[in-house]
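Look over this entry.
=====
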Amino acid sequence: MLVADRYRLHGCIGRGGMGEVWQGTDEVLGRPVAVKLMLAQSTDPAGADRFRLEAQTAARLSHPHVVGVFDFGTWDGKLFLVMELVEGDSLASSPAQPLVLPAERVAVVAAHAAAGLAAAHRQGVVHRDIKPGNLLMDAQGTVKLADFGIARFVDDPSAGLTTTGQIVGTGLYLAPERALGKPASPASDVYSLGCVLYQLLTGHPPFRADTATALLYQHIDSAPTPPSRLGVVLTPAFEAYLLSLLAKQPEQRPPAQAIADWFGSGAWREYAPRPAAPAMPPAAPAMPPAGGPVPGHAGPGSGAVPGAPVRTPPPPAAGPAPRVPSPGPGSGPLSAPTSVSAPPAGTGRRRAPEPRGGGSAGNALAELSRRRPRKTAAVAGVVAFVVFLFIGMAWLS
């Protein structure tokens, strides 16, 4: 069959409610094309206007991820639309055999479809029917947007060709604001794309219900189940970004171009960084026992230069005065007793128990001998000389 004396049709590759799509050849330019013929028995009263709108809308777009339109006209009483032929298939599938793709492939679909949407949005075109059947993938894996039959121009709300209160589009992928009867916007296309990506990952749309009304309420009020809870292996970054496309408020969704850039950059592969562990405060230095050597300074027996000053820690805070044992009979004058505390566990040093009666004087002399070795030696020598002198005089007499 030859359409408009130019397009040779070879076989039907698709059929919808208002038209058929045929694979054909442009015999003038010698290239493969897809020819969409409007069915004469179409019962849609606005079908012809919608068919023209699709041609006008797609003709405004020229992008690698949008199916291009080459020609439009009338032949044998039928409207026809000549488009780019995509050698591949759509992403549509049946519930019995759902199409599930790995995250790597879904990221490619997201990047390509979002890039095509961004091109449409820049031209003031809202697609309004993003669904798996309108995303075509060719043999090289390139995804293209198709079927702008119910698209509308942002600057011409009447171009939607719908009556007051009528909702157009597919309920499984309908944005919440559209379910409430509000006009479609570029953010509405983003939400629909999020539903498609969710289905490609999990095998089903984010919301399902037995009735259309229940389905609309789910889009409005219910939160989608994160795909990771359904067993889908995703990075946290991918899942968080996907759920942002399904935000209930349009202003909370990223624009299409940002989606294309994010997935195209490979940012979806990144894992969210773990929070850094809080820094531990430095440990406080251990306090030496009372009367013991101060860390960092030499004490007796440490090899320090004799006569070097030895620092002692400051006296302990005010508290009950230590009990001083009373001197035993015949003991001499006592110096102020030195406070002795138990050494910390594990130091390996042990002090001999304090002797009863007169032990305080001995402790004082021992402390003096430790702290002033030269003076102690001199005093001991004088005492010894005097003692021997008295012994000698007593022996001679």
Remarks:
- Residues 373-396 form the longest helix (24 residues).
- The chain is about 30% helix and 15% strand.
